[in-house]
Amino acid sequence: MPANHPSKRGRNSTRVIVPHRTPRRFYGHGIPDVEVDKLAGKLIVVEGADGSGRSTQIQMLVDWLEGCGHSTVQVGLKRSTLVSEELDRAQEGNILSRTTLSLFYATDFADQLENIILPALRAGQMVLADRYIYTLMARDLVRGMNEKWLKNLYGMALVPDAVFYLNVAPQDLVERTFSKYAKLDFWESGMDLGLARDMFDSFLKYQALMARQFKILQATYGFHIIEGRRPVEAINAELRKKIEAVLSGHQVT
Amino acid sequence: MKTFAQLGFPGRLVAVEGLDGSGKSTQIYLLKRWLETQRLKVFFSEWNSSELVKSATSKAKKQELLTPTTFSLIHATDFADRYERQLLPLLRAGYLVLCDRYVFTAFGRDTVRGCQPQWVRDIYSFAALPDLTFFFKADLEVSLNRILDGRPQLKYFEAGMDLRLATDPYESFRIFQGRILEQYLAMSSEFNFHVIDANQSIEAQQNVVRSLTAGKLDLGSFASQESAHN
Description:
The complex is a heterodimer of chains A (253) and B (230).
Chain A: E1 42-48, H1 54-67, E2 72-76, H2 84-93, H3 98-122, E3 126-130, H4 133-142, H5 147-153, E4 162-167, H6 170-181, H7 199-221, E5 224-227, H8 232-247
Parallel strand pairs in A: 1-3, 1-4, 2-3, 4-5
Helix pairs in contact in A: 1-8, 4-7
Chain B: E1 12-18, H1 24-37, E2 42-45, H2 51-62, H3 68-92, E3 96-100, H4 103-112, H5 117-123, E4 132-137, H6 140-148, H7 169-187, E5 194-197, H8 202-216, H9 225-229
Parallel strand pairs in B: 1-3, 1-4, 2-3, 4-5
Helix pairs in contact in B: 1-8, 2-3, 4-7
């Protein structure tokens, strides 16, 4: 394991810790014919806006987990073999109506859930999800979609073992986005909502709406809010500590 | 779920449902011709999906990549696309819209595939219910024979092959259609289907369809502006 990712277990020990099994369930109706008791692996979700540091943190967690002897699998949004290509084109053209786009994303999610996440968990792997249903729900909720409808739709999703939300203020996100991409993204600025004619204003307003929506969702789904305006290492140390608790079957504090 | 009338739309939606081979497409076509001769604002909604959704659906089907859940969701996406782009504007504009199949096709098919009935229904709850739904009830053997007599190439999902009901596609299709028929019958009273005996002659069925349509809808209010000027 990389020397810059120290951990109390793993570095000097040859013993690989077998994760503690905890009861599993779906949020709602779930996926037909899935035996949740056979899902031995752990599902860890990292949520947050673009530029909140999700992918950096996930890469560090992968290095650490694999160093500790756990097999990992990574998933994210819009990565299904089924519809990811069409979703890209749909975004470029901004041609689909709200319900249609929402269901399209749900299809992409379901495909990954059934073909990647569930098989990996059955095989006892650690699944690291770069965003999950919460981003999809928050995006739709700020666009006025019905909450009950969304909850039923995503009742197909498995309840993760832990969900971390990287909280970064919209002003800081702007800077990070500029330094990474040199421009703002149409969708991440919520330009389809008509919040402002100016992309910069729209970005700030949209990200503030999204952050507020995540706080509302947090009350229902109980994710751990991680303060994202800190050194990368400090954030990762906090994540590792919480994930260690998950692996040993404790409540994450 | 409410009908378009209950939601205050000026338009009305008439849907036909039934198994393949029940003759429903013939009946809705004849209903359309009759309404047209009366110069009413009528629109027959063909399921023209947008390029994008069609591309995803046909690719997924060809590669046999779909599970019951993704099958259900990709068809819901397709339906939402048509609903939002075509049906809603027409119904707002006060048209009589005729649909060959509606949400009930999905309810039956997805339930047979093993999806939770309530999950599927709630997903489609963004769509209003038809103001009039005809269900064409033919004997299972009659419908099957109409389709299978020509020995058509049955597609994988069309034959329900993903359900592993039988290794022979024709046998699989028979079992699959039988289960869908059971679902239709179970939905019949819940969704207020007008059940038409599809074993009767085409003309006898059309008589019932026309008189029910005239009785349930205020057809006069759909007179097109053009005819008013004539």
